[in-house]
Structures are given as structure tokens and as C-alpha cells.
Automatic annotation (TrEMBL):
<feature type="signal peptide">
    <location>
        <begin position="1"/>
        <end position="24"/>
    </location>
</feature>
<dbReference type="InterPro" id="IPR032710">
    <property type="entry name" value="NTF2-like_dom_sf"/>
</dbReference>
<keyword id="KW-0732">Signal</keyword>
<dbReference type="InterPro" id="IPR027843">
    <property type="entry name" value="DUF4440"/>
</dbReference>
<dbReference type="Pfam" id="PF14534">
    <property type="entry name" value="DUF4440"/>
</dbReference>
<protein>
    <submittedName>
        <fullName>Secreted protein</fullName>
    </submittedName>
</protein>
<feature type="domain" description="DUF4440">
    <location>
        <begin position="38"/>
        <end position="141"/>
    </location>
</feature>
Amino acid sequence: MKNCKFTIMLFIISSLLFISAAQAPQLAEPEISQFVDLFVKKWNQHDPRELIELWAENGDLMNPAGEWEKGRANVLKNLIKEHRGLLYESQMKQEITNILVLSPTMAWVDAKVSLNVPGIASGLDHHIVYLLVKQNNQWKILAVRPYQFLDLNLGRFE
């Protein structure tokens, strides 16, 4: 009888854990969308010291120029340089195209970015990939990679 109760209890607990794990992506996606919205808002305010608060302490950034900064202090230096330079008055919009929740504390996010930069008529539209980590109940950037797609025809030559 003891084994039967234990087995039933184990079944109930494992079922609850399975249901909880299955719901994790749906529960995380609105939080992640809000995080990306916050990133855009802070970018458009052009205060790198506010923007860097969205990075994990060991987070990194590789910008489209290939400059790779690791750790918040180094990423901050890059953000200051960018926001005092060409991107000073830029205005960003993002459209999330994919959220892949890897675990309850890690997610991969793809987004289309429209970056309006004064003086550049066509803007700097590109794609961005975030690797987010949840620390102290808040999403943070562990890695971010903005890049542009190449205009290539990869089909067969005719």
C-alpha cells in the first residue's frame, strides 16, 4: 500500500512538472517581448549608462563592424562611443520574428531592426539576435549580435 501511494504521488508531481515545463515558453514570451521593448526605449533615449543595465555582468556585444566587447564595462565603452557618434540621434524600432525559450532562464530572440539615422537616407535596417539569461527574476543580455544580410543569389548559375 505504501508503494502504491508513493507511486501515485510521484506520478502527480511529475505530471505537474511536465505541465509547468510545457507552459514555460508561453509564460516567458510576454516578458521577453517587454524586455525587447525596454531595450528599444533605452536605445532611443541615448543614455548608455541606462542601456548597459540590460546586460548581464558577463554579457557581450559584437557590433556590425565586428567590434567584440566582453563584460559590461567594455560593452559600456562601446555604447558610449556609438551613441556619441553616428548613432547619436538614431531611432530604433524592432519587430520580434522568433523567440526560442531554451530553458526557464535562457532564451534566443531574433528581431528585425529598423534604425533611422539622420544623414543616412536608407537607414540602417538589420537583424539582431539576443541570447538572454534570466538573473534575479529579470531578463538580461548575455550576448547580442546585430548584423545585415548579404544580398546574394545562392541559386544555380543560369
